[in-house]
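#data-curation
PF: Archiving a pair of folding outputs for the training set. Convention for this channel: one message per protein, sequence first, C-alpha cells after, nothing in between. First:
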Amino acid sequence: MDFRNQYRSMNERIAPDKALVADTLARMARGEKPRHRPRRLRRVLTIAVAAAVAIGCMTPALAANVPGVYQALYTISPAVAQFLVPVNLSCEREGVRLEVTDAYLQGHTACISFTMQDIQSSRLTNAHTALSGWYLDSMGLGSSRCRLVSYDAQTRTAAFFAEFSNPGQTFDPESMQTFSVSELFCGGAQAEDAPLAVPLSDVPVDPPVQIHEISSGTLDETGQCPTQYAFLVPLEPLWQSADGVFSLSAAGYREGQLHLQLCTDESRVASASGLLELCDADGQTVAAAAAYSWTEGERHYTETLYDIPCNALPGCSLTLDSSIYETVISGNWQVTFRLEKE
C-alpha cells in the first residue's frame, strides 16, 4: 500500500473553513490547550489542521522534525500530531537508517520487525548492539520487549523484533502508529554470568539508608513509580570488576527483603549496563521483587530487592550479566505506519 499517495489524495479533497484553520493555528501559537469539544468537532479540528498542511501553512517535515512543533500538535490533539507526521517506513539520522520491515496486530499485541543499519561508517562492527528509548506512541500502560534477532556484518545491519502488549487496550488498525528509538549502542563486548565472590550470609541487617530521587524503577499496583526511595548507603565495594566499571556498592537485609546495590561507572566508557542474578542454594534463580535506580554524575546505582528469608541466604550465589559499549548514537528515529491485522 502506498501511504504517501493515499494521504496526498486525502489532503487534496479537504477544504475546511478558513476561519477555523486560522483560529486553530492561532491557538497553537499561543500554546493553548483545547476546550472540551464533542467528538464530531474534534474530527473537524483534525481535518482543519491537516488542511493547513495541504495549503502550505505548515509542512509535515516541520511537524515531524522539530520536537517543539510536534509536541504542540500532540497537546492540541494526538490525532492531529499523528496525521501530520510523514508516513515513512524508514528514517535516516546520524548516519543510521531505521527501517520497519513488518508491523502487525496479534490480539492485544503490536508486533514490529525493524532494522538499524549504519550507512555512514563502521560503527556497527558486531552483533553486540542494543537500543534505548524505544516505544510506540499509542501504547498505554502495559508490557513491552525488544530483542536482537540477527546481525549482517557485510551490510552492518542489526535486525530487531519488538512487542507491545496491553490486555486492557485494543489497538485501532485504522489509526497511524509512530514507533521511535532514541539511542543505538554498539561495539564493545559482553561478559555473561561473571560470578561474584560475595558471602551473602554476612550481609548486615537493617543497614543505613539515604533518600534519593528515583530515575527509574518498578511500577506499583496503581501503575505509578515512586519519586523517592530509601536506598542503602554506598560503602566500600564488596566486589568490583577488573576494569572498575561495575561494583557491588552495598548489600543488606531490611523489611524482610535482601537488597543488592549495583554501581555502574560510565566515566571511562561510552555506555555500560549490568544485571545481577541471585540463585538459591539449589541453583534456582530468585526473581527480583522490585528495582529502583538513581544517578550521581556518571555513576548509576540500581538497587534490586528479593523476597527471600534471611536464613536462606547462606548458600546463595550472585552472578553479573554485563555489557560495555564503545559507541552511543543518539538519533531519535521515528517511523509512522499502520498496523496490519494478522
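PF: Second:
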Amino acid sequence: MPDSMPKRTLWWGIGLALAGGVLAAFVQPVLYSTAWLNTEPGQTVLYFGLLAFDLLNTLVIPLGTSLIAASLVMFYLRGRSRLADAERPKRWVLPEPLERRTDR
C-alpha cells in the first residue's frame, strides 16, 4: 500500500491556503456591508468578529503553505529513500545451525 501521507498533507495545505485567501478577500467586506452592524451592539460583534477572522487569517495561510512545503519534503525524502534501498547491499543471513559446516 503506497504512503498517502504526502498527498493528504499537500491537499490539506492547498485547502487551508485557499480558505485563508477566501477569508481574507471576502469576509471583511461582507461583515462591513451588514446593515445591523451600525448599531452599538453590532459594533461590538463586528469588533470581535474581525478580531477572530484576523486571528484565523494570521494562522491559516501560513499553516497551509507550511503543509505544502512539508508534503514536498516528504515526496523528496520518499524518492531518496527508494534510491538508497536499491543501492544498499542485501544483508547476509546466518545459516541455520544444522546447515553449518562441520569439517573444521
